[in-house]
């Protein structure tokens, strides 16, 4: 196994959050592949019941068990787990109360829904508890079972509440197994072994939600990680051309002449084509200017930033490996 030398040395729980539509699950999956490269073993966990991991790896729906789903670059294994709150409740009841059989009967009566209605944070305790248990788990020789765990977490708007489990169950139990369990979870989540990464795209709302989420984490005393800027479009035009287009000084006549010289159009066709292309260039330039502005906003947050390309052919297995390599190249894994 190769030694780690990344921005996140010592981090064993990578929590990935982001506004809907930013590619949060895609980035979590690519990060898991990147972390597993070189012979390591990584667990990728999802907690929202969407079976997003199965879809992105083109697999049947995942059961509530850890199973290998991919081989990472240069060797290494990615395992996946789709956490089911009801099954987590059964494990919890067996672990702390020795009553799994009775617990199964209770779940049929809707005990999970009842418990989470009385104490909304309890469901989060169950799923984060399962994740942090995987972080702590050791084999019979005392070796860590997983080198890292990647959690595909809820969206940015509720990430601080989701992770702040001790506060969430404070009204449910002052003493006893629930309190002890939440404190154990909290000990992992708020430790230097955890980093909460944000996924965004270069648009105003996701960027603002990312900055708000970072501020909420700081207020809650939770460890912020890096910012993954996803679906970045590479400009095919020189900066000088974009600057002229933004200022309205791009000359369609010059473009028409170029089209004629290249034999791509002639006469009035060249002029009409040049006008249409000039408008597309102006729109591209305006978008690039807005994206640069959002980059500047993200730069105000004192966190490492990583840019992942927009995949022309969409996200498939080949695309995931491409993103994983980009993550490794930038030092995030």
Describe this structure in words.
The chain has 333 residues and is an alpha/beta fold. It contains 14 helices and eight strands. It is elongated, with a radius of gyration of 24 Å. This is ATPase. GO terms for molecular function: ATP binding; ATP hydrolysis activity. Residues 13-180 form the ArsA/GET3 Anion-transporting ATPase-like domain.
Overall mean pLDDT: 86
Helix proportion of residues, in percent? 40-55%
Which range does the strand content fall in?
5-15%
What is the CATH H-level superfamily of the largest domain? P-loop containing nucleotide triphosphate hydrolases
Name of the top-level CATH class of the largest domain: Alpha Beta
Uncertain residue ranges: none
The number of E-state strands comes to: 8
Q: Compute the gyration radius: what is it?
A: 24 Å
Strand order of the largest sheet: 3-4-2-5-1-6-7-8
Give the helix tally. 14
By helix and strand content, what is the structural category? Answer: alpha/beta
Q: What characterizes the major β-sheet?
A: 8 strands, mixed
Order of helices and strands: EHEHEEHHHHEHHHEHEHHHEH
How many domain regions? Answer: 2
Intertermini distance: 14 Å
- What coarse outline follows from CA principal-axis ratios? elongated
Q: What's the architecture of the largest domain in CATH terms? A: 3-Layer(aba) Sandwich
CATH fold-level assignment of the largest domain: Rossmann fold
InterPro entries: ArsA/GET3_ATPase-like, ATPase_ArsA/GET3, P-loop_NTPase
Protein name: ATPase
GO molecular function: ATP binding; ATP hydrolysis activity
Organism: Nonomuraea cavernae
